[in-house]
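Morning, I've got a small favour to ask if you have a moment. I've been staring at a protein lately and its backbone has me curious. You're getting the sequence in one-letter code plus the fold written as tokens. I've dropped the whole record in just underneath, so have a look:
=====
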Amino acid sequence: MQNSHNVNTFQWPVRVYYEDTDSGGVVYYANYLKFMERARTEWLRSFGLEQDELIEKNAVIFAVRSVQVDYLAPARFNEQLLVTSSIIEAGRASLVFEQTITKENNKRILCKGRVKIASLNTQTFKPCPMPKQILEDLKTGDK
């Protein structure tokens, strides 16, 4: 379901399970962040990168630096959602994603967020350049 022509935009489907909901029957607010995290992880996988391999081979981890989220409408049990992730800023050691979660059937925006990801050295936890493959793919737009 990803956009295979642009590495900077990616879509990932999510089904709402009972465990995702609160006592009111709607998705618990923190779970939207989990859905966004899964989409970013699948974005990396879409061009052959696994986070455990980045740790082992490059001594790099990605950590959330900041998050801004707006909750616009509720999602409910068993709904099919679509998480769209777009890179809006790319630096040597960070990426900023704009992410939206919509109902797949009508594209109504339920939640939108801006997430800044930092590339960190696994030993020092200080910022470090992202792996070259990611930077090259971002520059060329290829996977």
Remarks:
- Residues 37 and 62 are 11 Å apart (CA to CA).
- The chain has three helices and five strands.
- Residues 1-5 have pLDDT under 50 and may be disordered.
